[in-house]
Amino acid sequence: MDDVQQRLEAFRTAPEGSYLEEYLGDPRVVPFLVALVADPDAYDLARIEAMTVLRLWPPADPAAAGRALAAALRDDEDELVRQHAAMALESYAGDAEVRAVLAAAAEGDDDENVRFNARAALGRPALE
């Protein structure tokens, strides 16, 4: 198992001590992060950290990441996961499907912070 694979496995269970930013050029890292975000059964903190990495360093081909983040925003039961998904989607808001999910969350999510983050990702004022 090489260093990147070891980091990926560690990130899945203890993301706060596993930094992947320096490995983003490795072709395994972005698909790993996208799959982690898309897995509702994965450790929520690992999913949130993956969302943060995808927010700060969007991949060159953002479609899969945007879809995974939008699905987490739309479907996840945990409000903290949805809050972070909404924040991360700011980097993907140029996609029509992503914008539709953000707009729905901005208007109808049960959690005030999710609504706020979705509005911010859309570039809207916090209160409309």
Please report the total strand number as a whole number: 0
Tally of contiguous helical segments: 7
The CATH first-level class comes to Mainly Alpha
- Output the helix-strand order: HHHHHHH
Tell me the helix content. 55-70%
Low-confidence stretches: none
Q: End-to-end span in angstroms? A: 52 Å
Percent of residues in beta strands: under 5%
- How many structurally independent domains? 1
Write down the overall mean pLDDT: 91
CATH topology, what is it called?
Serine Threonine Protein Phosphatase 5, Tetratricopeptide repeat
Cα Rg: 14 Å
Overview of the structural elements:
With 128 residues, this protein is mostly helical. It has one domain (3-122): Serine Threonine Protein Phosphatase 5, Tetratricopeptide repeat, CATH 1.25.40. 63% of the residues lie in helices and 0% in strands. The protein has 7 helices and no strands. The protein is globular, with a radius of gyration of 14 Å. The model has no long low-confidence stretch (mean pLDDT 91).
Distinctive features:
128 residues, mainly alpha, Serine Threonine Protein Phosphatase 5, Tetratricopeptide repeat, 7 helices, 63% helix, 0% strand, globular
